[in-house]
Amino acid sequence: MSTQNVSRTRAWLMAARPQTLPAAAAPVLVGVGLALGDGVFAALPAFAAFVGAALIQIGTNFANDYYDAIQGADTDAREGFTRVTQSGLIPPEEVKRATYLTFAAAIIVGTYLVYVGGVPILVVGLLSVASGVAYTGGPYPLGYHGLGDLFVFVFFGVVAVTGTYYVQAASILASPFPLGVPPGTVTLAAVVASLPIAAISTDILVVNNVRDREEDAETGKRTLAVRFGYGFSRAQYVGLLALAYAVPVWLWFAADHSPAVLLPWLTLPLAVRVSRTVLSETGGAALNPALERTGKLLAAFALLFAVGLAV
User: Fold this and answer.
1) CA separation for the pair 78, 181 (Å, rounded)
2) Cβ(230)–Cβ(282) under 8 Å?
3) Could you tell me if residue 1 is inside a domain?
4) pTM value?
5) Per residue in 2-19, pLDDT tens?
6) How far, in Å, CA of 264 to CA of 268, rounded?
7) How far, in Å, CA of 60 to CA of 210, rounded?
């Protein structure tokens, strides 16, 4: 897009990328739904978990914008959404400063969650912030060495869902600042329920990497799409969707959940339509909308899944 006449406010919104916030909200929704179903819902820890997750997401977006630009991974040939550092809309040092201020705000919010969840949340929170910076920054950027998918799967999926459930359960079942993991605060159902969110969140990155494969290969960013090709990434996308839709079935048959847990299957037509695009396209004109639709799929799946878990 043209960067002429873009206001400062608009530029900062572009850097924050609010369209990625479903990746922060989705795990909280599922963690809340499961907590409601198990009778351990706690509003304040759940809200703090969402605010913290949103700040980490935005901080990671700022970090990606800054580090991709200074390391040369973003060029004028980029087909994705406009990056404010590379395009000159915001000076690099301002984006870097915003990155660390946002992560600092996440840590401040996290102090309450540490009070509730103790040492486990302290460790997870610090790892989440460190990984958000290390995704594209530091001496060994995760996203530049094919580890971005694992980072998203673990931190925006498994850790985010189980962590949301944990802080609610801990606020009810344990004393403040537990040193270990109190009984009943991390359940098998919470870990399994995190897998669809982890899978679809990772698929957002897969679409991004398929779209940027040629540019990433030229600039030395060795994503899985660059390392193994379009075929691998397309199989990865479909395989992760298969995992997402298999989990509700497992919870119904094997974990004695209500049939309402199958509500996310209502989103299957959207998943099929987006998959067709990912399986056949490589350019930004088609994959940018597919990226947004995968985010919408994540939000819709998470909402219906949360309802099904809460019933």
Assistant:
1) 45
2) yes
3) no
4) 0.93
5) 556 789 999 999 999 988
6) 8
7) 20
